[in-house]
Structures are given as C-alpha cells and as structure tokens.
Amino acid sequence: MPNYISKMFGASPVAPMQEHMETCFKAARELVALFEHAIDGEWDKAVESRQRIVELEQEADELKKQIRGQLPKSLFMPVPREDLLNLLWAQDQIANKARDVSGLVIGRRMKIPIRLRQDFLNYVSRNADAAKKARKSVRELDELYETGFRGAEADFVEALVEELDQIENDTDEMQAKVREELFAIEKDLPPVDVMFLYRVIELTGEVGDMAERIGRRLELLLSH
Amino acid sequence: MENALIYMALAAVFGLFMAWGIGANDVANAMATSIGSRAITVKQALLVAGIFEFSGAVLAGGEVTSTIRKGIIDASSLGPTPELLVYGMLAALLSAGLWLLIASQRGWPVSTTHSIVGAIIGFAIVGIGVDSVQWGKVASIVGSWVASPLIAGIFAFLIFNSVQWLILSRPDPLERARRYVPFYIFLAVFMLSLVTMFKGLKHVGLELDVLECYIIAVACGIVVAVIGRFFIMRIQPNRKAEKRFSYFTVERVFAVLMVVTACAMAFAHGSNDVANAIGPVAAVISIAQEGALTQESPVSIWILLFGGLGIVIGLATFGRHVIATVGSKITHLTPSRGFAAELAAATTIVVASGTGIPISTTHTLVGAVLGVGMARGISAIDLGVVGRIFLSWFITIPAGAILAIIFFYILKLSFG
Fold it and tell me: Mutate which of A7, A8, A139, A145 to test chain B, going by most B C-beta atoms within 10 A?
C-alpha cells in the first residue's frame, strides 16, 4: 500500500539549488585561471580552462532544468516559487557570463595590453570573489529553511549579502579604473581589439552584477 | 440465539483480518514521519509501534469501539430481529476490508475509519431503516472529520512557531534546545496520560478522580522528561557535521523528542483505529450472547486485547516492509518538524478517542503536517496529493455503504 503521508512531500529544492550554485561558482573561478593563462600566453592551458567552463555551464544548465522540473505549481513552499526560480536564474547567469567571456577571449586569442594586466586580473578575481560570496550565501539556504527564514540565521545571511554588496561595489570601481586605463591607450591599439576589450570588461562585470542579484533574491526570500 | 457461535466466529475472523490490515498498512502512516526523519530505525519503529499500538488499543480504545458498536445505529429500533444487526456488522467488516484491499491495490488514499462508518450507515439505511441511524451522532462524526485535521493543523502551527521562537531563531539554538525540549516531552506525555486516564481506564477496571488523574499525569510527564533530559545531555556536538549543516546537533536533540512523539502517535493510532476492526465484532458478540445490543455494558477488555493483538500481528508480518518503504521516501522532514506534527496529531486523536469519536488518523496527521508547513517549516508539500487524500472520503463513504448493502443481503439470504 503506497503511503500517502510520504507522497505529500515534494522533493526539497534546497540541495540541488546549492549544487547548482557550486557549479556556477566553479565556472567563475575558472575564468580567473583562464585570464592568467591568456595573459601568460599559454593558450593550450587557456583553451583547457575554456573547455572546463563550457562543461560547467552545461552541467549548471542540466541542474537548472532538473530543479525547474521538480517545482510544479502545486507545491506549497515556505517561499514563493517565483522568487526561488528567480534566484536560480541569477545563479545560472554567472555560469552563462563566464562562458560568454571565455568564448570571446579564446575565440579571438585576445591579448590584454601590458599596462592593463595587473588591474585587469584584480578586476576579474574580484568578480570571482563576488561569486564566491554568493556561493557562501546560498550555502546558508538549508539553514534558512531550517529556521523558517527568520531570527539569528536570517540576520547572518543579511550580513553576508551586505558583504557581497561591498565586493560588487569594488568591482564597479575597478571596472571604471580599467576602462579609464584602456581609454588612455586605446588610440595605439587596433580598433577592433579595443572594441572587444571593452566588451570583455563589461561582460566580466556582469558576473559580479549577477552575484549581487543573488544577494537581492536572497533578501527577497528573507522578507516574506 | 440460533447460530450464535457461527456469528461470533465469523466476527472474530473478519475483525482479526481487519485489525491485521490496519497493522500491516495503516500503522505505516502513523510511523512514517518518525522514520522519515531518521529519529528511529525501522526495527525500533516496529517495537515502539507494537507496544504503543497495543496499549493504545487496550487502554484508550474503549470509547470509540463503543461508538462503532452502538453509537451509530439505534439498537432499540431493531425490535424482534437482532440478527439484522449481526448481518449488518459482519457486512460492514467485509465491505470495509474489501474496499481497503481494492483501494490499496489501486493506490487510492482511503481511510479505514471512513469506510467502516460508511459501511455501517449504508447497511442500516437499507437493512433496518433510515430512522435507525442516529443522525445526530453521525453528523458530529462527519463534522469531526473536517474539524480534526483543522485542529491538528492549528496545534502543529502553534507548536512549531513556539519551537522557532524559543529555539531555532536564536543565536544559541543548541543550548536552548537542550533547555526546552524536555518541556515538550513533558507536554506530550502529560496530555496523553491525562486523556487516557480520564477516559480509558474504566475498561481496565481502574477508577481515578480528577485530581488523581492530574497528579499521575504530571508525574508521568516529569519522569519521562527527566529520562529524556538524560539522553539529551549525552549528545555531543558534532563539529564536522555542523560545518555542512549548522543545526545538525540541534536536530539530534529533537530526535530524542521524536521518539516520545512516535510512541504517542502509535498510542493514538491504536486508541482510535482499533475500533474500526473490533467495534463491529463487539456488537456481534454482545448480540449473539445476550440477544440484544445493550446500551449499558461497556466494551469487554478481552475484545480490546483481541484487536490490539490483531494490529500487532499485522505489524509483525507486513509492517516491516511497509514501514521501510515509507521511511526511505520521506527525507525532508527533520525531527524539529516531525515532532510538532506528531504531537499535534496525537493530541487531537487521543482527545477524539477519549470522546469516542472515530476520526481518520491519516487525515489528522496530514492536517498537522500542513500546519507545520504554514509556519514555513517544510520545504515542499505537494498540494495535489493533499487534495486527493482529503477528497478520498467523498468516494469512500458511498463505496463502503454500497458494498455493505450487497454483503448484508448475501448474509441475510444465507443465514435467514
């Protein structure tokens, strides 16, 4: 005889959401490695990094589909389904942006001008930091469910999100600086390269933007 | 009475089969939350269920058995043909048993209580007459089928909110869990023993006055709470597991509490559901022995023992398999949730048992789980399944009734 009490529980989305975030963060982290290799001119290794990012992005996509599939509208959850799906979307975007940036860099064998290199690397890894902090926040999701999204645990996540905002602010400032430096030397570089450099700078910044958006979504979950 | 022995033997066989079915299938619903939250193992669940189902049935099952036996049908309307009631009660057992068999094979969520009550009403209307049904009593029973999940839900909501407020939302949840969980243990034991003593012990031949009941209930609560506290204090924080999930040790404290509420749930289930199997048996036996269904005589302790035994046999033969299957499926109900649902459901059921109202254990537990869900305690509840569970009794009552009418005429023809 099938048991009805056990049937009434839907699969919890928490663990898969965390796994998805883990995968997306790995993609962002690999992006730092990719730029290091590209700057050193080690294109074989850079291509390998690109390959890993593509694989991670695909893995994240699979997880995303699986999570969406297990969240039918008939589920009654402590947080609105829409908010959870929006959080999932933001997480997924981190992997997507990492894939886009890596594609541009590898496809064009892009060279970062020497004067930009250090600031550029710092900028990329700060964006990865933002993704890391987003991961740390999402890792608290099971604790948030445990406490019913309130009390000391909610305050803790709130603080994490604040730190995440700080890091994202840093990336904004660093982006402005890198752009400024590029602007100063852009006349001496091939115009098409410059165009794509601006594009890469912008896309890389979106990794941080998406991490910040994860923070916003988490705050929304807390506010219900 | 002619054929008295045959009637009694048939009633015993059908009743035993029904009790066996309740033990084999239905208990899993009651125990599922405990095993699912890993508070107890399958072996422990079987042991706990066996002991507490049995004592629930014997100590607190009398009132509901009374209701099934003589509360739904007005026996005075039978007049010179008490055999009709014998056929009817046997038919009710057969139809409820058959309906449960069909439903469980099809995977329909049906309640033993709903099918037996539906069956009794069914044969009474057709076989004896519409006036023979005590409609006032039936209305209160049906009303309680709506009220019991609701009340359990509200209870569970309040209990889980108190857990959040006292323990989970605090910066030092482990210390607070250690401090407050014994109080919840006390509450569970106190409620259960109080209701049992108020209503149940007459059947065992013990008469206590109100004050004595309260004193004993408080004493029982304190004793179990102190034992529980001993186990709680022995739990060492598991730092490694806490790195992955910081409430790991807190949940282990709640697991101690959940052992208590699992016992409570088994007790409550035994106290209410044993009547579904042996209420009709009790009716048949008193008619067969005395020629009429007397309103005065209480349910004999032997019949309660018989029912409790049937449940335990069902549990021992098939329960292990069912409980193991169920337990592996529920993984997202941690002890802090499971206990709240079980405490709320068990309290509601035991109070109903004390008042003699047959309610659905499963529905009550579902209501309690929803209550925890309303307090943002459960990550995902499938409302589609919940809807099907609650809707099932709209089909079960007429189905039980129609089958009972068929069996009634078959029995009437073969004996009459």
Answer: A8
